[in-house]
Design goal:
By secondary structure, the chain is an alpha+beta fold. 43% of the residues lie in helices and 20% in strands. The protein has a five-stranded antiparallel β-sheet. It has a two-stranded antiparallel ribbon with strand order 6-7. The longest helix has 21 residues. It folds into two domains: 138 residues, Beta-Lactamase, CATH 3.30.450.60; 31 residues. The chain is built from six helices and seven strands. It is elongated.
Amino acid sequence: MADFDTNPTSLYSIKGIVILDQDGNRVVAKYYDRNTFGTVKEQKAFEKSLFSKTSRNTSADIVLLDGVTCLYRSNVDLYFYVLGSTRENELFLDATLTCLYDAVSVVLRKNVEKKALVDAMDTVMLIIDEICDEGIIMETDAQAVVQRSALKSDEVSFSDQSVSQLGFSFIESANKQFKWSLLK
């Protein structure tokens, strides 16, 4: 991985995406800059420092901490952070943060709380992967991210489906098989 601060790429990049709970504990974290955030110990120390600085300050949504530009947004019991280098465009970092928050909000049906987020952790990780690939911002449109990361009805296990959904999918599958048997 290249050094984010000395490599003047033309691609917009971020150093990490972090979601913390109201106590400052990590819920989700994905770091892309191995030089700044090399070990888990360094990551946890940065998260503790970041939370202590942002949990008190409700007036700002951007801070500069240890040479890292941090944009954040809080909701109920979660804090969403997008981390970038000091030379990175804050508007793109803000667009990334907005996309992350809006996509998670849509997936959680506007119930953006820690319990709901943990229950949908697989989809949240897919959302983060759709937004950013190895630090390069790939998408900032929340609807496009949700469409690409949403589970298809075929991928949902039977335990996650209601009886009516199971009956409907069974009838739909039977109809398709019947049509194909008539065409043969």
